[in-house]
Amino acid sequence: MRAELVHEPDLREAAWTFAAYETPVSDRMWHLTLTAATPDPLLQSLLISLAHGDAWDTALGSPAIERTVSAATRPLTDAGWKHSIDGRHIRWQTHHGDAGVQFDVFAAQDSHIHLAAWTLWAGPDIDHPSWAIHASRYAPAPILAALTEDLAHNTGTRQTRTTRTEHRKNSGTATPPHRPTRQRQLALQPAPHADPTVQHAQAARRRL
Question: Which one of 42, 62, 132, 205 counts the least CB within 10 Å of its CB?
Fold first, then answer.
């Protein structure tokens, strides 16, 4: 397994690339990319799945089949996402159309088509997503299912990192630093052009 990170990419460009190999010198079994704006919960789910050994669930030469598609998209079906077929594409979308998953049947069946078989996205539409995850035809069903489950049930995963950061800044509950009241500030500063006699009298009273 290899992981590559591109530092400071455009938010809609691939930042993470994960690729599985049968041996260090063999051809790539499958790969998956995440754009820079992909929310952290999805990246964490992917890392947990990889740590559990799900990367090896699909053997080399075993493209996505009906059983794989069913397992990978079950969380979407259970969540009531809309299911549609548009030519070579099978799609699952929220009722609001702000997030979806697309499976490219041709890309999954033909090794000469160098396109992603799977696309997970959120944003205005699949052609102009705020973020996207692309996976190849051999991507393991358990990894895809972990990602689709987060996408289906965690509304926070439909926000970009920038959006969530700004939200935390705007809605944080941290207690602001204490500032003296205006009356207290005025009391701490001598009045301009104050009578020196009055000041000496006040100092004498404090000494007593």
Answer: 205
* Residue 3 in tokens: 């992981």
Q: What tokens were used for 125?
A: 């539409």
How many Å apart are CA 201 and CA 208, to the nearest integer? 11
Closest CA to 105 of 145, 131, 69, 60: 69
Q: Are 143 and 51 in contact (CB under 8 A)?
A: no
| CA count, 13 A, side-chain hemisphere, 106 | 9
Q: What is the pTM of this model?
A: 0.71
| C-beta separation of 164 from 39 below 8 A | yes
Q: pLDDT per residue over 165-187, tens digit each?
A: 343 334 444 433 443 433 333 23
